[in-house]
């Protein structure tokens, strides 16, 4: 708090969630606003990557790390009891992230090695910051977060290698998605029932979500095994029916796990209900991926990936961003109509993207509509929450 009080610069750099949530959301909106017309052939982005590779890279290695940074730079001080990273160090860290986005966007005329180094500078610096804080605070149990971030950064390096060698990045993309989904299951699996329990208690509900137990551990282990099999499936001769049954069973286990959290009872409060809506695509993604393994249906495979990226990653990050932004800026923990509209938009984007996956003939209609809903959700976050994030806490 002493460091927070000493910082006399812009409020946007007074806490980690402020710049990374706001500009991460802006990046997500601009990413799809540019990518859809580029993919459809109407514009050209001066990037050295193909439209699909740029889309994947900037979602997984641009947007996602920004939100992870905003979350962890806010959470780690609570874990360690140390002062948060604020002011010029936070500004420098944000500058590395922002510079990486600019370099990748205008990379067509740059040396590839320079582009890779610029894009990797931020995640490596973030790992260094977090490792220092966790070690200094002797918070050993949360070193696993650093391990996950390190593995995630390794998938980014693999992404560049695959693109150089093969012109595609199947394994890096799958591994990155799998790691983020596991993070959502680990962190979401704690906060969703916790926030639900707190809200239901206030409303006087007698039956509350159970505490994390053996069944949750079983589902987590099975999910990790299923995601690992899904990542390596293109390279190894795993029997499709075996993988299909495994993934669909994991989807059912996750659905039952979430049902125990009493999701329908939270409908009256969108700030809580969105957590359940955003966790649901985790289970559905397993089901679609399993169906794709059984049938070889490319539409189902696309549906699984977009369940996990648009629904789980997009929805859960918006849910956490809105809740954390309201709580840390002194606003009530309830969702006003404008925030509920943001949640509705991301769910519409998911439904339209799934419809496009299963109806390829409608792609040129459904994909732009899904993109428009995504842009509305993230641009809406910037409009509604930007003023909160730029102002000091009242």
TrEMBL record:
Concerning InterPro entries, the annotation shows: NnrS
Where do transmembrane segments lie in this chain? Answer: 20-40, 60-79, 86-107, 113-131, 143-161, 176-196, 217-236, 242-259, 271-291, 303-321, 333-356, 362-386
Which terms are listed as keywords in the entry? Membrane, Transmembrane, Transmembrane helix
Pfam annotation, one family: NnrS
Question: Which positions make up the signal peptide?
Answer: none
Q: Quote the protein name from its UniProt record.
A: Uncharacterized protein involved in response to NO
Q: Which organism is it from?
A: Martelella radicis
Is Protease found in the keyword set? Answer: no
């Amino acid at each position: 708090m002493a460091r927070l009080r000493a910082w006399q610069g812009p409020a946007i750099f007074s806490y980690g969630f402020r710049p990374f949530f706001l500009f991460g959301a802006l990046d997500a909106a601009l990413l799809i606003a540019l990518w859809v017309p580029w993919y459809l052939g109407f514009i050209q982005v001066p990037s050295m990557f193909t439209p699909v590779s740029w889309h994947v890279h900037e979602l997984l290695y641009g947007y996602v790390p920004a939100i992870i940074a905003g979350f962890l730079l806010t959470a780690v001080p609570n874990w360690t009891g140390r002062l948060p990273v604020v002011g010029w160090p936070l500004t420098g860290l944000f500058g590395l992230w922002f510079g990486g986005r600019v370099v990748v966007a205008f990379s067509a005329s740059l040396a590839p090695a320079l582009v890779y180094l610029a894009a990797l500078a931020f995640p490596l610096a973030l790992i260094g910051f977090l490792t220092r804080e966790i070690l200094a605070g002797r918070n050993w149990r949360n070193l696993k977060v650093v391990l996950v971030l390190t593995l995630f950064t390794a998938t980014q390096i693999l992404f560049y290698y695959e693109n150089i060698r093969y012109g595609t990045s199947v394994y890096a993309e799958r591994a990155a998605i799998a790691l983020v989904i596991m993070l959502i299951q680990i962190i979401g699996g704690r906060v969703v029932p916790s926030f639900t329990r707190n809200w239901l208690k206030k409303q006087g509900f007698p039956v509350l979500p159970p505490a994390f137990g053996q069944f949750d551990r079983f589902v987590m282990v099975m999910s990790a095994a299923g995601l690992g099999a899904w990542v390596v499936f293109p390279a190894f001769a795993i029997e499709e029916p075996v993988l299909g049954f495994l993934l669909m069973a994991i989807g059912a286990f996750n659905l039952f796990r979430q049902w125990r959290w009493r999701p329908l009872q939270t409908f009256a409060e969108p700030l809580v209900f969105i957590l359940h809506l955003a966790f649901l695509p985790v289970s559905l993604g397993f089901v679609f991926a399993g169906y794709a393994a059984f049938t070889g249906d490319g539409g189902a495979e696309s549906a699984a990936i977009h369940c996990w990226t648009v629904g789980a990653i997009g929805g859960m990050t918006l849910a956490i961003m809105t809740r954390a932004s309201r709580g840390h800026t002194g606003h009530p923990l309830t969702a006003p109509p404008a925030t509920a509209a943001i949640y509705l938009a991301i769910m519409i984007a998911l439904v339209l993207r799934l419809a496009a996956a299963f109806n390829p003939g409608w792609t040129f209609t459904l994909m732009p509509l899904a993109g428009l809903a995504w842009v509305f959700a993230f641009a809406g976050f910037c409009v509604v929450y930007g003023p909160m994030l730029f102002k000091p806490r009242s």
